[in-house]
Design goal:
Catalase HpII,  Chain A, domain 1, Rossmann fold, alpha+beta, about 25% helix, iron, 10-stranded antiparallel sheet, 7-stranded mixed sheet, metal ion binding, Catalase, metal-binding, about 700 residues, Hemocyanin, N-terminal domain, binds CIS-heme D hydroxychlorin gamma-spirolactone 17R, 18S, heme binding
């Protein structure tokens, strides 16, 4: 179902392929009903099995062939369907692409998020780039915007992609470490290839640790080209901005979530859509007229550079909403095949050498991954636009072409299917001239100005996280020369950064900058300088044991729900807990099955017996302490404050009913029906800020 109840064209098209097994008889692949599937056909009860058992042979043979190669990069992902709709038609001045310019047009989409380095079964929460690949099923054919959650990439020329990927993937000798960049080969590569530094700064930043796929920006990365009805081109960069804002986990939390819930980001996306909290992004564009191609101090064709938003503003185009989970992970999320060369009229390429290589690679990789040239017929990949051509046969051909001809030109079929019909894609006319040469353009050679811009734009908290990330990653590198070479490169980004990193990894402190810091900033690069706040879909644990303040819990849970948050009562065991008013409170989750790191905030209600039981339970104390360590909003009321004190949560506690908020810790001595509304407001406010970054927690043992 679409979010407005209407089923979009793609959803309807998929009905053709959906299989519903309800109330059906078990059959073979040939449709023959099977009487018994638990035992093989054998010569006697204890005898050898018989070749003649076509059912079991077919069953096992199919099973033997269930696996296909995982994606060579971006193997682990999660996908969903949705819709895109432009706000108005202002972009029509620049492009003929209908789906971007006709506000009456709703275009179905499929979006696949992914991590890059890890295998298909690796954890979601690792330090990595996230893929952000959107397939628009437009009326003019499929358009794929295959982007990432960073606006820049690690290399400039696709020729380096296999080198880079081999470096970041696990070490060849033992396939260790899984889904992690903290090892020698990656940092060896970085130290020798300074073009990586800008994306490396992003990778060391909080951007690499998204709280949710729903709280992540997306970027097309390359400079693409919009083309208007007269064939005039305009350079364009694509941006996706999440309605919930851009928010990250902290590193300690990331590592623990990887164990507590390896599917953390997947589950979050799935649950949000199932519960009707449809994730939303705004598509925006930065436009650069062709005359201004050389107006920047970097090359627009260089994918390791971004256009600062302060220089070229991001103009809103439309909204994408994810509304439907797939029916089958393999059929849809695994078999979806993106390709940067899937463009529609009005959108074209530039000579970015990374993009050009991608335009080769994505088609090629699907041929091996999906087993042949007919993968575009797989339901998730099929356009809603009509497909007619003379391409024939091949493995897995599903279409029955009835035409008498399969060539063009022909007279027998009146030259159908016909090229050159209205609405046909025509390549942008560009004059190209040059000497055949294998050489990196001189205009690509400033590797340091933008990493410096990124560093300068961070708040102090973000900068601290970057330093800690470098220390962690390089601290895992065995070869000390590699550590030193990376620090040497960081001198060219910023001397202070290099010195702070060096101090943590046993490398002599550098004393001289590689080059002076230009001092420029771009506030839009910081996640914390102007964050979007709000409690919507935030998960809040309410710790409870027998004797809990029933009225207080009910009011808190109802208040959080009314604000769009997701409260869960976490008990020492599952079932119910007795409340102080003689009733019961339902437990949503038992403490042993969850962890503090799976929640955005925690509340400890009143109830003397409940508080005493929680204080005696090390897991409950750890739950609260860890939330405090990770900067999360914490609320305590009445006797619940005893638990916070026992957890040694350093905060200015309320002395009376008037709520006190101290760096995300919200307290009141009131309880039950006396809880003041200001307490609920202050807690919601603290949750909405995502984390209390000003809280100092270095001495917290968690
Ligand atoms: Fe990809 N990339 N890539 N990439 N990429 C793939 O295609 C490749 C690059 C991105 O959810 C592969 O179907 C080359 C930039 C995403 O299915 C492969 C180069 C960006 C996804 C491939 C790049 C991306 C892929 C692996 C350098 C951000 C996952 C399986 C020239 C703008 C799509 C597949 C999905 C997947 C090649 C660089 C994003 C091998 C050669 C830059 C989001 O074709």
């Amino acid at each position: 179902m679409g979010h407005d109840g209407a089923r979009d064209r793609k959803d309807q098209q998929l009905d053709r392929d959906r299989v519903v097994d309800d109330d059906q008889a078990l059959t073979t692949q040939q449709g023959v009903r099977v009487d018994h599937t638990d035992d093989s056909l054998a010569a006697g009860e204890r005898g050898p099995t018989l070749m003649e058992d076509f059912h079991v042979r077919e069953k096992i043979t199919h099973f033997d062939h269930e696996r296909i190669p995982e994606r060579v990069v971006h193997a682990r992902g999660a996908g969903a369907y949705g819709v895109f709709q432009p706000y108005d038609d202002w972009l029509a001045e620049y492009t003929t692409a209908r789906f971007l310019t006709d506000p009456a047009e709703t275009t179905p989409v499929f979006l696949r998020f992914s991590t890059v380095a890890g295998s298909r079964g690796s954890s979601d929460t690792v330090r990595d780039v996230r893929g952000f690949a959107v397939k628009f099923y437009t009326g003019e054919g499929n358009y794929d915007l295959v982007g990432n959650n960073f606006p820049v990439f690690f290399i400039q020329d696709g020729a380096k992609f296999p080198d880079f990927v081999h470096a970041v993937k696990p070490e060849p000798k033992n396939e260790i470490p899984q889904a992690a960049s903290a090892h020698d080969t990656l940092w060896d590569f970085v130290s020798l290839q300074p073009e990586t530094l800008h994306a490396i700064m992003w990778l060391m930043s909080d951007r690499a640790l998204p709280r949710s796929y729903r709280m992540m920006q997306g970027f097309g990365v390359h400079t693409f080209r919009l083309v208007d009805a007269n064939g005039r081109g305009t350079f364009v960069k694509f941006h996706w901005k999440p309605a919930l804002g851009t928010h990250s986990l902290v590193w300690d939390e990331v590592q623990k979530v990887a164990g507590a819930d390896p599917d953390f980001n997947r589950r979050d996306l799935w649950d949000a859509i199932e519960s009707g909290n449809f994730p939303e992004w705004e598509l925006g564009v930065q436009l650069v007229p062709e005359e201004d191609e050389f107006a920047f101090d970097f090359d627009l064709l260089d994918a390791t550079k971004l256009i600062p938003e302060e220089q070229v503003p991001v103009r809103p185009v439309g909204k994408m909403t994810l509304t439907r989970n797939p029916d089958n992970f393999f059929a849809e999320t695994e078999q979806v095949a993106f390709h940067t060369a899937n463009v529609v009229p009005g959108i074209d390429f530039t000579n970015d050498p990374l993009l050009q290589a991608r335009n080769f690679s994505y088609l090629d990789t699907q041929l091996i991954r999906l087993g042949g040239s007919n993968f575009s017929q797989i339901p998730v990949n099929r356009p809603v636009a009509e497909v007619h051509n003379d391409q024939r046969d091949g493995y897995g051909q599903h279409r029955i072409h009835t035409s008498a001809t399969s060539y063009n030109k022909n007279s027998i079929s009146a030259n159908a299917p016909m090229p050159g019909c209205p609405g046909a894609f025509t390549h942008y006319t560009e004059k190209v001239e040059g000497t055949k040469i294998r050489k990196r353009s001189e205009s690509f050679k400033d590797f340091y100005s933008q990493p410096t811009l990124f560093w300068n734009s961070m708040t102090e908290v973000e900068a601290e996280h970057i330093v800690a990330a470098f220390r962690f990653e390089l601290g895992k590198v065995n070869d000390r020369d590699i550590r030193a070479r990376v620090v040497d490169q960081l001198r060219y980004v910023d001397l202070d950064l290099a010195a702070r990193v060096a101090a943590g990894i046993g490398v002599p402190a550098p004393t001289e900058a590689g080059r002076p810091n230009h001092g420029r900033t771009s506030p839009a690069l910081s996640q914390l300088s102007d964050p979007v706040t709000g409690v919507a879909t935030r998960k809040v644990a309410v710790l409870a044991a027998d004797g809990v303040d029933g009225a207080g819990v009910t009011r808190l849970v109802e208040d959080l729900r009314a604000r769009g948050a997701i409260p869960e009562v976490v008990g020492l065991t599952d079932g119910t807990v007795r409340s102080d008013d003689g009733g019961t409170v339902d437990v949503d989750k038992a403490l042993p099955t969850v962890a503090s790191v799976l929640y955005d905030a925690v509340a400890v209600p009143c109830g003397a017996d409940s508080a005493a039981a929680l204080t005696r339970d090390g897991r409950a104390l750890h739950f609260v302490t860890e939330a405090f360590k990770h900067g999360k909003a914490i609320a305590g009321f009445g006797a619940g404050l005893d638990v916070l004190r026992a957890a040694r949560i350093g905060a200015g506690y309320a002395e009376g009913a008037d709520p006190v908020e101290d760096k995300g810790v919200v307290t009141t001595t009131a309880h039950g029906g006396d809880l003041p509304s200001g307490f609920f407001d202050a807690f919601a406010d603290a949750i909405g800020k995502h984390r209390a970054w000003a809280r100092k927690t270095d001495d917290v043992a968690a």
